[in-house]
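From the pipeline queue, job 12 of 40. The input is one protein chain; the requested action is below.

Action: predict structure.
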Amino acid sequence: MPDDDRPSQEESGGRLQEALTARRDKLERLRTAGVEPFALGFDPTISAAELARRFGDLETGAETGERVKVAGRVLLLRRHGKLSFATLRDGTGDVQLFLTAADLGEEGYSLVDGLDLGDIVGAEGEVVKTKRGELSVKASRLTMLSKALRPLPEKWAGLKDPETRYRRRYLDFATNLDSRRVITARAAMLSALRRILDGQGFVEVETPALQSLPGGAVARPFVTHHAALDIDMYLRIAPELYLKRLLVGGLERVYEIGRNFRNEGTSTKYNPEFTMLEAYQAYGDYFTMMDLVEQLFREAALAVRGSLLFEFQGRELDMATPWRRSRLDELVSEAAGRTLTLSDEAGLRAAADEHHVHVEKGWAPGKILAELYEKLVEPNLFQPTWVMDIPREVSPLARPHRSTPGFTEHADLVVGGLEIAPVYSELTDPDEQRERFELQRAARAAGDDEAHTYDEDFVEALEHGMPPAGGLGFGVDRALIVLTNATSIREVILFPHLRPDPGRG
């Protein structure tokens, strides 16, 4: 509808108030007639999807003689005197009700007059195919299950505006099947991830989400206060250090799927609360974990998309072909058009100036190289790519590289310009870990509030001996962006974080 034809804010407010009043009036009429507008329960015998699967091939005008019970929200209602049609939406799809006074009786059909879009009803009747070829339930009984006292979004407004969809997510799911598919895609993906890990002997565990020290990643934490203990505590930014303690304790393969929290800004890639899979395997390394991530992501793709070849951002994404593996410094050198090394800080700073990448005066060469990578390389990696060997300065928990000084055995999987999964050969030397923590503590003292916290208890755990291990972190939400062809992380999180609604006090 053209903008000029849209009602003004005042008109919209007036129409909404009229609708609210009319629905309240219908509510009272139902109660006066002895109809309970908020039923205790109902027992559907078939879903919309199962109805379509079993009876979709019926001939036009066919009557099956088979009776079913269906329930759902009224999304479409057409009244024609003593004949009406209603479209219900349940958790699987849509089903049409064929409603007549002859089948329902005059008293039963009077309920149709009390219906509004958004009402939740149940119906019992015969499965038929109308003369127009519509698979329907020819209702002989109609039950009000929940009277909707507020209307669904009007057609002209709908839920096209992303901000409105995210704020009224329940309405988005109620009216938009594509949005609802995100829920089933997430469930299918998590099931696939667990199936692979459980099948390989990994044990799923739960570690604290409320921690006395934040750790496991370089990020700013959320801070809260424990009243009884009178101490500050932190929502976890990662479960890594607790999972590694389990390796010290003798568990050789562990994983956790849980919520992490980082006190950072929001964007199409970032949400302060997100879901992460972390897994650790004793006697593995980052090659072991790269292979495992590829298996996990491919299995998730098959569960969600049914194929390893699918569209993302208007291009074909190929998860079947062997994934590229390249060193970070080589990728940055290629993008910058010159050979860049950690030993040439002047060259790194010159490349940053040339490509308009901001770097701070006190940054070490490894951090400059990592910043160049983030700005020049990562956004342009579309097909699955492993970016290997991350500089030591930005990877405080990974093992030093076995053959290249200044780098760590840390690789990041990038797909569609999104970092999906870091993997590591884990650092098990307690003295090296203590030194890394000291460097991070110095960075924090210099003003870096995202530097890793010094965790002496974790160092002591390492001093008891931790087996060599590989670790991985798999970003569930970002992987879902790829697998559902979404444009923002908000689309794949059921209730994303938003700024306060200025329209509400």
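Job complete. Residues 1-7 have pLDDT under 50 and may be disordered.
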